[in-house]
Amino acid sequence: MKKIILSFASLCVALGMSASPKYVFMFIGDGMGMGHVMAAETYNRLSLGNEDNILMMQFPVASMALTYSASSPVTDSAAAGTALATGRKTKNGMVGMTPDTTAVVSIATQLKEQGYGVGIVTSVAYDDATPASYYAHRPNRNMFVEINHDGARSGFDFIGGAYTHVAEKNIDACANVFDDYRANGYTVAHGLKGLKEIEGKEKVLLTGGNPHSPNDLGYTIDSLENVLTLRHLTAACLSHLLQVSPDRFFMMVEAGNIDHAAHGNDGAAVVKEVLNFQQSIRVAYDFYLQHPEETLIIVTADHDTGGMTVGVENGRTPTFDDIDYRHASKEKFNDYCLSHKDFTWEEMKQAMSNELGLWSHIEMSEKEEAVVKEAFEAMKANADGSQKTLYKEFNNFSAIVFDILNHKNGIGFTTFSHTGNPVPVFAIGEGCEEFSNVNNNIDIPAKIRDLVGLD
């Protein structure tokens, strides 16, 4: 399959084909730098034993994009999302606007005005910075009520994600948000049951349905059951667009949990999220196989989060075999610890064995056990420090445990924040060769515009 993909791309370049895709898929791995990709690929190759690379690495075009914003060498998701959506640089914190607060139109809006179907889906809140950049125009990414006002009037055919950020401050206010969407012709549905409720509808807002966890759909590594996933949303969005606009459409799909896991420096969770992302890409790729001369798939990232590396400071050989013994994300384990402070050390040690594989499958030295036990006792005595990241504050005990796990895997991080590193770009399909050089992030929507014939 890989040789066929490469041959097709080479033929496009050799013949100078004028590509004009009818179906455009734009996948964004939030926070997904090359370290994140290589960690997932290393696990795929060494632990799962797969000879083929992960799907996006099989695409014929592989390049990179620069991500700096108008205000900093290190972008945030709002400025990066705006760049990818509109082709314009802006200041960190702003969505769909230039630095002087002039609203700029996204490629999604332009395509909708030209008769394309449009779908925007994410594994985090649907009004988070990246998806909002495609339909909203606000000077502050945290203006969630106003962002939803814009979303309800976008006319987009499908919007999907975990929930609305409005729930974080006032769950009751969510009713007004959803009523506004309904007033503008949207069917609002929630959870797995919502997949049935949206069938045959014209415009859809589909959420994970949990107002108490609006930030994301949950981590793959936590093996949550009976919940909406990014793959569900991607497949539902594609099905809906084929119903309402079968001749041409644009989809943006964001894997937002990669960023959340990387902010927490949770290496194993990042690996599982990148692999989960491949399942959503697979939905589009299967469609591409049926329409290879009419489809373009682009996979990129808005920025690098965490400065993740395969390899740590002491030269330890990376080994990911024990990741499959990990049944809890750092966030889940942190919450578990805080709710079980009455545990004895032996009880907590057993819990770590069951949920993280420590001692049962992962050898712990006497020194490592002493460090972890000391942190556990400090947590019980409320003398524990904390590790604060963008989305979560971790108790020091959890932080130490996961630092040890990362080190044993040979996974390193340089920060809990974003970096200015370039990010990968993978592409396949009509016009994919246009993305083969080093891109600035604003070049990506500009090239899409050229390929589909937008002014």
UniProtKB/TrEMBL annotation:
GO molecular function, one term: alkaline phosphatase activity
Active-site residues from the entry: S77
Cofactor(s) needed by this chain: Zn(2+); Mg(2+)
SUPFAM superfamilies for this protein: Alkaline phosphatase-like
Entry-linked Pfam families: Alk_phosphatase (PF00245)
Family (UniProt): Belongs to the alkaline phosphatase family.
Protein name: Alkaline phosphatase
